[in-house]
Amino acid sequence: MARILIVEDNALNVKLFCDLLAAHGHEPQAVTDSRQALDAAHDFSPDLVITDIQLPHVTGFDLIRMMRADDRLSDVPIMAVTAYAARGDEERIRAAGAQAYVSKPISVMRFAETVDQLLHSANGADPENNAVDGPGPTEAGGEEESQL
Ligand code: MN
User: What is the C-alpha to C-alpha distance for residues 28 and 26, in angstroms, rounded to an integer?
Assistant: First the structure.
């Protein structure tokens, strides 16, 4: 069981993500206004943050960068969820500091698998090498284990 903070402005997605995570035994908490996300993360101490990218006021990119610059949150894995997963987006998302992204509309299986991978890699493995949707590795320097 993990504590997972969801930052998502779409109420239907909030319900979907919370239901999915709860069904997998996790404890989700959601904020729909990303301006509250950092405070919520400080209060909730999540094991994983799932953030939408297309958010009013504070975009997912902004939030990822702010978390990475925050001493208390810099090590928390981040999974981005975006409806516009163009090729350049993956690079931007990873450059901002997220470990993975899942494109919307989400695949339930992909969503759950990516959550599991990020939670497990937070317990010791390299978080840079998680599977993501879309083409291409983006970062040098990770030692990839072969996984079939
Ligand atoms: Mn949105």
Answer: 6
